Amino acid sequence: YDELYEILRHDRESGNIVWVLGPAVAFDYDSRRAMSGLVSNGYVDALFAGNALATHDLEAGIFNTGLGQDIYTKELRYNGHYHHLEAINRVRRAGSIEKFIEENPAQNGIVASCIRNNVPLVLAGSIRDDGPLPSVIGDVYQAQDAMRKHIMQATTVIALATQLHTIATGNMTPSWQMRNGELRPVYFYTVDISEFAVGKLRDR
Known about the structure:
Elements: H1 2-14, E1 17-21, H2 29-40, E2 46-49, H3 51-63, E3 65-66, E4 69-70, H4 83-94, H5 97-103, H6 110-116, E5 121-123, H7 140-151, E6 156-160, H8 163-172, E7 176-179, E8 182-185, E9 187-191, H9 195-203
Parallel strand pairs: 1-2, 1-6, 2-5, 6-9
Antiparallel strand pairs: 3-4, 7-8
């Protein structure tokens, strides 16, 4: 972790940091708050995710739940399984995620921090998505192009709890960058409950 802290501090000023997040990051009060703080303090140059991360992060801002479970106490809320659908519907009524955040100044979390700090948020869709939210890119080729635009600038990539998005990002990440006339590696970290994500990344 000490090495990672040093890299992040360095790349905040002299590099480009891309995060790849799964919805689990938004299911916990502390991890959601920490990620929002990293965005607000300049440690995120682009964020890749799917419909689920954005939906449940917005749900947490509205209801303090993730998939109907309190993100702090972990207790189930009555009819909480409807919360993520209600969050999607509210954003769709607003017309866009950006408009929803603008109309709801009390909204907090990862997505709100990205919008308020002009951090690019690339949401790549999935056939499993319910909704989905506006801004989710349903065409896989368009989603890849949107991701490539940012990943080709990356000097550090950190992927948390998302096998598919981690592997997809790894497929298009360069192994090195030129910075200030010097060749340097692209650091790629992944944290996942399954070794499959790490194994597939190493294959690439």
